[in-house]
Amino acid sequence: VFQPTVPGVVAQIVNGVAYAPDQAPVQVKQAIWAANQIVGMPYRLGGGHRLGFTDHAYDCSGTVSFAMHGAGLLARPRDSSSFMRYGAAGKGAWITVYTNPGHAFAVIAGLRLDTSAAGDPAGGSGPRWRPNLRSTSGYRARHPVGL
User: Fold this and answer.
1) How far is CA 79 from CA 36, 59, 66, 115, 141, in A?
2) Could you report the per-residue pLDDT of 116-135, keeping only the tens digit for each?
């Protein structure tokens, strides 16, 4: 598996692929590298919720679940509502999952992993690293304990 890194503490997008910051904890790097495996796949409601996490298309929470599982931070896929009780409350230092009953996305080492094109001029649905953050109004922030 391709495991690209960049110097520092902030991830960067290069040609649609996220490069993990070399100073990040290993679980953060693993979440980024896992998500890279599904970036560009199509969106499908319910996608990514199989027990093995592997699918041909992913929805929002399936995308977040895949990344968290790749880092060893999640044993089973979660839907958006169940992410509202994930980990600890508030923003994390490295990983934050923003969730409400209808949508979930993550910010990992400063990059947004989202199936929604909100705020992304390039558009496109399905799992993508988005170049900018979006409004978090109406979302609950959760994070893996310690990250």
Assistant:
1) 20, 9, 12, 14, 15
2) 988 888 888 899 999 888 99
